[in-house]
Design a protein that fits this description.
Helix content: 10-25%
Strand order of the largest sheet: 1-2-3-4-5-6-7-8-9-10
Radius of gyration: 19 Å
Number of strands: 10
Number of helices: 4
Structural class: alpha/beta
Length: 262
C-alpha cells in the first residue's frame, strides 16, 4: 500500500517552496499520483524504489520535465518522454516503443550484493545498445549495494560488463558515472576522457591509488571513493570544484584534508 501521507507531504512541500524537483522515491507507489500531473513547473521527478509497472500517458503533459527516474521499479510500459532513467532490464522491455533520444540514464546491475553476481540480461546487446543512446548522461554499473569494505569479496568484471568498463572512454556525454562492487584494482582509464562528468562514484572497486588525472575532470563536483584501499589522496584534487568528497571505509590513518569551496 502506498505511503499516502508521505506522498502528500512531499507534494505539498513542492508547492509551498520554489522548486523544480520532486522526490517520491521509496513510497511504495503502484502508479504515479494524479496530482503530480498538475505540477507544470516540474523538471525532475524521482520515482525510484517503488512498485510502478505502467507510467500513465498523462506524464506527457509535464512539458518542462527533463529527468524522470524510474530505477528500481518493475517497469513494463512508459511513454517516450525526455530524460528517462531506467534499469537495464526495464530498458530491454520498453525499448521498442521508446525514442533513443529519450534515454538519459541506465543502471546495469551485476547482482544484489557480494557473492550474488550474475551476467546481465541480453548481455550481447549491452555495449552496442548503450552506444546507440545519443543523450546518455547517467550510467551506473555494478552491485545494487555495498555495505562492508571487503576487497576479497568483490569479483572482477567478465563478459559484457568487462567490455563496457573497457569502453567507458567512448561515452563522452556522461555527466554522472557510478561503478560499484566490481574488483578493478584501479580507476578505469577511460574515465579520463569524460570531461563532462559532474558526479563520479568509484565504490568498492579495490582501488589502492587515486590517479592524478582525476584533476583533469574540471567539471567534477561530487566524488565518492568509499570502500576501497586508499591510503592517501593527491593534492591535485584540491583544484577541482568539489562540493562533496566521500572517502569512508578506506585505509587512511586519518581522514585526509582536501580544501573544498565554502
Amino acid at each position: 500500500m502506498a505511503n499516502s501521507g508521505r506522498v502528500e507531504q512531499r507534494i505539498r512541500e513542492f508547492r509551498d517552496k520554489p522548486s523544480t524537483k520532486l522526490d517520491l522515491s521509496t513510497c511504495d507507489l503502484r502508479e504515479i499520483p494524479s496530482t503530480v500531473f498538475s505540477l507544470r513547473g516540474l523538471e525532475e521527478l524521482n520515482l525510484s524504489r517503488n512498485q510502478i509497472k505502467i507510467v500513465q500517458e498523462q506524464i506527457r503533459g509535464l512539458g518542462r520535465l527533463k529527468r524522470l527516474d524510474l530505477t528500481y521499479n518493475p517497469i513494463q510500459k512508459v511513454p517516450s518522454v525526455a530524460g528517462l532513467v531506467l534499469d537495464w532490464d526495464a530498458h530491454l522491455r520498453c525499448r521498442s516503443a521508446l525514442s533513443r533520444e529519450c534515454i538519459a540514464g541506465i543502471q546495469v546491475f551485476t547482482g544484489e550484493e557480494q557473492g550474488q553476481e550474475k551476467e546481465v540480461p541480453d548481455a550481447s546487446l549491452l555495449l552496442p545498445e548503450l552506444k546507440s543512446l545519443p543523450l546518455l548522461r547517467e550510467l551506473r554499473i555494478g552491485l545494487r549495494s555495498v555495505t562492508v569494505r571487503n576487497p576479497l569479496g568483490f569479483r572482477p568484471p567478465t563478459g559484457s560488463v568487462a567490455q563496457l568498463i573497457d569502453s567507458l572512454g567512448e561515452f563522452l556525454s556522461l555527466e554522472d558515472l557510478t561503478v560499484i562492487g566490481i574488483l578493478l584494482g584501479e580507476a578505469p582509464t577511460g574515465i579520463r576522457k569524460l570531461k563532462r562528468l559532474r558526479r563520479l562514484s568509484l565504490t568498492g572497486i579495490g582501488m589502492n591509488e587515486t590517479p592524478d588525472w582525476l584533476s583533469e575532470l574540471t567539471e567534477l563536483q561530487w566524488l565518492n571513493l568509499r570502500h576501497n584501499e586508499l591510503g592517501w589522496l593527491p593534492e591535485s584534487l584540491g583544484a577541482l570544484p568539489l562540493t562533496t568528497l566521500t572517502v569512508s571505509n578506506n585505509r587512511f590513518g586519518r581522514v585526509p584534508e582536501v580544501n573544498l569551496p565554502d
